[in-house]
């Protein structure tokens, strides 16, 4: 059994805890919160033997093997380093860090300590994503010439503070744009040229961001993220033999794959095994538990290099669009 702790009692931590219960070789043993009240509220819904009212107490718990870092991305660097310093393996939420420098430090620390560390890019472990990769790799779409992705929603009130707070590295690009970047790079690889523009919210962080990737072979990716418009949240991969659409929400387990070999009315559903369990976090939690059981220090699926390249691309997008955080100074 791999013994899991969760750092931070926010909304994603709740979904992850629910899914962890489905993983046969994982056991949820400890929760850590900055407040006793929060930790107890969490433990009421997700009973757990160890309830800690500080992150320091959580990381010092000898009963914990691996910690899921579920704090805002502004704090992933600090909290991941805290876990690693105390000998804990880490699964860290996306965006992995605020910038490439932080990501490099986190990965170097894991290597120095011989500890497992992975970015929680859950999409990479979902059945529809795996099918998207095998479908495109086997040439069904022919030569891929463009990828078009949008992800947008108007947050419900009360609006979660972290979305627009510069201190918490708010804004669309690190929160949701990261999925657009991830899918585009999964298909076309690292872009040769990047252009990006944003519209700032009142707090200065991007409330909309438009990104263009260009490739030497002529391919392009157009990515759009928004906190002020409900968008279809679909992804289209266009090739010389047709189009593959990842239906809404393209990054999540409910997405389906539609192949259009010709015009709009030529739709064919692409079948794949879809054992939908829980919220979809089961797959990454199972993968990490399996890696730890095998004694791995790095995931062979979501590698350190994958994360570092993505952070470099995100840095360049932010630089082109004029999105700066304190951690960049
Ligand atoms: N994979 C996914 O599908 C997915 C979905 C949503 C979000 N995320 C990612 O998960 C992370 C957390 O998102 P969330 O929506 O769960 O956020 P959230 O609801 O605001 O929760 C974040 C938690 O982090 C802890 N925290 C530590 N330092 C904090 C600080 N200075 N300010 C605020 N909270 C702080 C708090 O827990 P305590 O008070 O208990 O310590 C808080 O409840 C983000 O990086 C986000 O991008 C991933």
Chain oligomer state = single chain
Please give the count of helices.
Answer: 9
- Run of helices and strands: EHEHEHEHEHEHEHEEEEEEEHH
CATH topology title of the largest domain: Dihydrodipicolinate Reductase, domain 2
Largest beta-sheet characterization? 8 strands, mixed
Strand order of the largest sheet: 8-9-10-7-11-12-13-14
Write up this protein.
- With 329 residues, this protein is an alpha/beta fold.
- The chain has 2 domains: 141 residues, NAD(P)-binding Rossmann-like Domain (Rossmann fold, 3-Layer(aba) Sandwich); 150 residues, Dihydrodipicolinate Reductase, domain 2 (2-Layer Sandwich), CATH 3.30.360.
- 33% of the residues lie in helices and 24% in strands.
- The protein has 9 helices and 14 strands.
- The strands form 2 sheets. It has an 8-stranded mixed β-sheet with strand order 8-9-10-7-11-12-13-14, covered by helices on one side. Strands 3-2-1-4-5-6 form a 6-stranded parallel β-sheet, sandwiched between helices.
- Helix 4 packs parallel to helix 5 and helix 7 packs across helix 9.
- It is globular.
- The site of NADP nicotinamide-adenine-dinucleotide phosphate has 23 residues, from helix 1.
- NADP nicotinamide-adenine-dinucleotide phosphate binds next to helix 1.
């Amino acid at each position: 059994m791999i013994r899991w702790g969760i750092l931070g009692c926010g909304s994603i931590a709740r979904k992850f805890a629910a899914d962890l219960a489905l993983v046969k070789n994982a056991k949820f043993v400890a929760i850590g919160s900055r407040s006793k009240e929060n930790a107890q509220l969490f433990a009421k819904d997700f009973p757990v033997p160890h309830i800690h009212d500080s992150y320091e107490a959580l990381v010092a718990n000898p009963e914990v093997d691996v910690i899921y870092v579920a704090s805002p991305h502004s704090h992933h660097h600090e909290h991941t380093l805290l876990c690693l310093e105390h000998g804990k393996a880490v699964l860290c939420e996306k965006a992995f860090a605020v910038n490439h420098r932080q990501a490099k430090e986190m990965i170097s620390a894991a290597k120095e300590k011989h500890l497992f560390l992975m970015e929680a890019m859950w999409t990479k472990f979902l059945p529809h994503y795996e099918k998207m990769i095998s479908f495109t790799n086997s040439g069904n779409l022919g030569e891929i010439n463009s990828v078009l992705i949008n992800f947008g929603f108007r947050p419900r009130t009360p609006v979660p503070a972290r979305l627009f707070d510069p201190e918490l590295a708010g804004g669309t690009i690190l929160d949701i744009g990261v999925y657009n970047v991830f899918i585009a790079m999964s298909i076309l690889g690292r872009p040769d040229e990047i252009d990006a523009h944003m519209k700032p919210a009142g707090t200065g962080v991007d409330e909309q961001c438009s990104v263009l990737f260009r490739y030497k072979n002529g391919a392009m990716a157009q990515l759009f993220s928004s906190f002020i418009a409900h968008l279809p949240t679909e992804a289209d991969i266009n090739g010389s033999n047709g189009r593959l659409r990842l239906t809404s929400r393209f990054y999540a387990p409910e997405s389906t794959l539609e192949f259009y070999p010709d015009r709009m009315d030529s739709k064919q559903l692409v079948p794949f095994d879809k054992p939908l369990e829980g919220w979809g976090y089961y797959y990454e939690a199972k993968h990490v538990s399996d890696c730890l059981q095998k004694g791995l220090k790095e995931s062979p699926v979501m590698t350190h290099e994958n994360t570092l390249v993505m952070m470099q691309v995100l840095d360049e997008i932010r630089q082109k669009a004029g999105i700066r955080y304190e951690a960049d100074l």
